[in-house]
């Protein structure tokens, strides 16, 4: 297949490489020269604009930082919807608000181009290994059509519903994750302050009702989980600034829907402070720093 890939960063770079490994012809574009060099070295065809990449393609995949970039690439003055052939398919895997992708899909429909949202979980490691989970918002026929492309980059393809619902799933999951990670950090810090050995405390939590992914697999206290970022100085994980972005999307969506997100708003403020304190690039489990300066 001829596939255009727009946004070859930490996630997109690896995802595009997996498409190349599966034998697809990939036309790539990114603003970063370094990203383009890595892509070319892996066998990708470098293009000098999103339109130049999209013109050649039956399928477009985009993996961009935020909604304004996605809007610009699809709907902007030099947007790809102006050049895509009728019948082509677009998959946006960026994490953005549901409304933006719904607007893009509506504009695309007028040109007989199908668009779906397919945000991911699994992080940079999942992108590299081709084991991402895709949360897909699309009608049934479009979901079937994008499956062969997505399965080159991920192992779980979840059909969430109509366009936009992939983003809803992603936003709600990360809202819960941000809250649960903060809850575990708060509990671990309190226990340590009150004198219990953190290993013993984690053991109790993980065989009791406080157990969750954040306590068991990704505990924010150092040296509880050997492979978690907390055991290597909170490096190489899911950056606190990306968690802050996702919490912002959840809080904004809740405001528009007039639905309370009480804990989400509080945790958003804690992540804002963490990022302002200079920890934006650390893994999001470094929320531990808001509770203790010496978690060891
Ligand atoms: P990144 O910043 O590493 O990559 C984004 C790339 O987009 C950059 O290389 C940038 O140069 C490029 N770009 C920006 N504007 C562009 C434009 N107009 N045209 C072409 N390229 C453009 O970000 P990332 O970590 O790869 O994340 C991408 C998306 O995936 C984000 O929406 C993020 O929230 C989401 N996400 C990231 C992770 C993660 O662990 N990094 C996990 C899940 C979801």
From TrEMBL:
<dbReference type="GO" id="GO:0050661">
    <property type="term" value="F:NADP binding"/>
</dbReference>
<feature type="domain" description="6-phosphogluconate dehydrogenase NADP-binding">
    <location>
        <begin position="2"/>
        <end position="161"/>
    </location>
</feature>
<dbReference type="InterPro" id="IPR013328">
    <property type="entry name" value="6PGD_dom2"/>
</dbReference>
<protein>
    <recommendedName>
        <fullName>3-hydroxyisobutyrate dehydrogenase</fullName>
        <ecNumber>1.1.1.31</ecNumber>
    </recommendedName>
</protein>
<dbReference type="GO" id="GO:0008442">
    <property type="term" value="F:3-hydroxyisobutyrate dehydrogenase activity"/>
</dbReference>
<dbReference type="InterPro" id="IPR011548">
    <property type="entry name" value="HIBADH"/>
</dbReference>
<dbReference type="InterPro" id="IPR008927">
    <property type="entry name" value="6-PGluconate_DH-like_C_sf"/>
</dbReference>
<dbReference type="InterPro" id="IPR002204">
    <property type="entry name" value="3-OH-isobutyrate_DH-rel_CS"/>
</dbReference>
<dbReference type="Pfam" id="PF03446">
    <property type="entry name" value="NAD_binding_2"/>
</dbReference>
<comment type="similarity">
    <text>Belongs to the HIBADH-related family.</text>
</comment>
<dbReference type="InterPro" id="IPR029154">
    <property type="entry name" value="HIBADH-like_NADP-bd"/>
</dbReference>
<feature type="active site">
    <location>
        <position position="170"/>
    </location>
</feature>
<keyword id="KW-0520">NAD</keyword>
<feature type="domain" description="3-hydroxyisobutyrate dehydrogenase-like NAD-binding">
    <location>
        <begin position="164"/>
        <end position="289"/>
    </location>
</feature>
<keyword id="KW-0560">Oxidoreductase</keyword>
<comment type="pathway">
    <text>Amino-acid degradation; L-valine degradation.</text>
</comment>
<keyword id="KW-0101">Branched-chain amino acid catabolism</keyword>
<dbReference type="GO" id="GO:0006574">
    <property type="term" value="P:L-valine catabolic process"/>
</dbReference>
<dbReference type="Pfam" id="PF14833">
    <property type="entry name" value="NAD_binding_11"/>
</dbReference>
<dbReference type="InterPro" id="IPR015815">
    <property type="entry name" value="HIBADH-related"/>
</dbReference>
<dbReference type="InterPro" id="IPR036291">
    <property type="entry name" value="NAD(P)-bd_dom_sf"/>
</dbReference>
<dbReference type="GO" id="GO:0051287">
    <property type="term" value="F:NAD binding"/>
</dbReference>
<dbReference type="InterPro" id="IPR006115">
    <property type="entry name" value="6PGDH_NADP-bd"/>
</dbReference>
